[in-house]
């Protein structure tokens, strides 16, 4: 890749942003990683500390930085969808407004997700609004408020004003390592399984019958990074929205037992009712601290490693959910990953980095 490419990865400490930043650096891009704290400084990523809700902070942090490509991979969770819309649209708008005067930006990529098709947190996967699956990019917006739509609209408006191209990326559940992430199924299941092993408890399926028996897919953070890079450098992919998943499909009634076997624990499948993981794990904070201390782990705060509420949201859905990948495949994107390998490689990484025993 040309060294003339200058990337600004927004949310560079998260699951998506960190994997993307590593890929960009390995491809010869000058890569800036924007986050609220300036502590990020790994693998050649240049840290930028700025608050996306504070224009003055952005202006100071981005002074003399003129990115050609912006990759927006972050969001902030709020109590209502109205607040999600207000805050998360401002994150995008503020950044693009601050970058606008220099006219350096050639392409903006925005990462959203399947809530584009399934609805916002307040009305997630509810009857009457559910799409036909596999979900396809041409599916119309739901008649519901959704901060993903608001973020898209900010990108479209700024692109019209400033003349850059854009791409929208809609992963299914993103699996990868990140500390303190708000939507982190992989590490949530790793911590849950580790607790089950330490306490000699069964690894109980927390979700719905539809998810247990239905077909599903997920998105390895590295495959998402590959598609982001591909779309940013492929003219045919400009000004398009793309689904992105591993490329295989699975049923949880198979993968759940595979995960249990990896940890050496007994699995219990769907038995007629949902067992929310958030409820199961709410009293495990002190237990995890004890496990972490006893095993010399790097993170003693269970809330920094898990997001049971979001795992429940995914695994409790009343329908099977999978994504159609035809659009990017037809344009030449060939990224693929075995989902079992996605989970197992994450577990190996977490164990090697002393995040799980």
TrEMBL record:
Coiled coil: none
Gene3D superfamilies assigned: NAD(P)-binding Rossmann-like Domain
InterPro entries: NAD(P)-bd_dom_sf, PRISE-like_Rossmann-fold
Segments crossing the lipid bilayer: none
Domain PRISE-like Rossmann-fold span(s) in chain numbering: 68-357
Protein name as annotated: Nucleoside-diphosphate-sugar epimerase
Species of the source: Filimonas lacunae
């Amino acid at each position: 890749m040309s060294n003339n490419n200058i990337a600004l990865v927004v949310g560079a400490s998260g699951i998506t942003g960190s994997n993307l930043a590593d890929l960009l650096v390995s491809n010869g891009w000058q890569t800036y990683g924007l986050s609220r704290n300036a502590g990020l400084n790994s693998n050649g990523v240049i840290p930028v500390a700025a608050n996306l809700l504070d224009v003055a902070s952005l202006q100071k942090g981005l002074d003399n930085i003129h990115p050609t490509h912006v990759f927006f991979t972050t969001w902030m969770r709020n109590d209502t969808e109205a607040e999600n819309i207000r805050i998360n649209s401002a994150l995008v708008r503020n950044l693009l407004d601050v970058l606008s005067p220099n006219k350096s930006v050639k392409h903006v990529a925005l990462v959203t997700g399947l809530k584009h098709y399934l609805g916002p947190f307040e009305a997630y996967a509810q009857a009457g609004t559910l799409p036909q699956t596999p979900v396809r990019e041409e599916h119309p917006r739901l008649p519901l408020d959704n901060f993903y739509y608001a973020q898209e609209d900010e990108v479209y408006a700024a692109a019209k004003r400033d003349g850059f191209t854009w791409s929208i990326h809609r992963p299914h559940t993103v699996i990868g390592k990140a500390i303190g992430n708000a939507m982190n199924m992989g590490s949530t299941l790793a911590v849950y399984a580790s607790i089950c092993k330490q306490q000699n408890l069964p690894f109980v399926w927390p979700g719905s019958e539809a998810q247990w028996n239905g077909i599903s897919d997920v998105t390895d953070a590295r495959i998402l990074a590959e598609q982001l890079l591909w779309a940013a450098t492929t003219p045919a992919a400009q000004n398009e929205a793309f689904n992105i998943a591993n490329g295989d499909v699975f049923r949880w009634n198979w993968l759940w037992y595979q995960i249990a076997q990896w940890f050496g624990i007994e699995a219990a499948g769907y038995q007629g009712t949902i067992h929310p993981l958030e409820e199961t794990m709410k009293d495990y904070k002190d237990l995890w601290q004890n496990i972490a201390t006893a095993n010399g782990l790097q993170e003693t705060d269970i809330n920094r490693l898990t997001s049971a509420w979001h795992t429940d949201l995914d695994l409790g859905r009343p329908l099977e959910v999978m994504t159609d990948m035809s659009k990017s495949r037809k344009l030449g994107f060939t990224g693929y990953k075995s989902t079992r390998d996605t989970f197992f490689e994450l577990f190996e990484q977490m164990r090697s980095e002393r995040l799980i025993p």
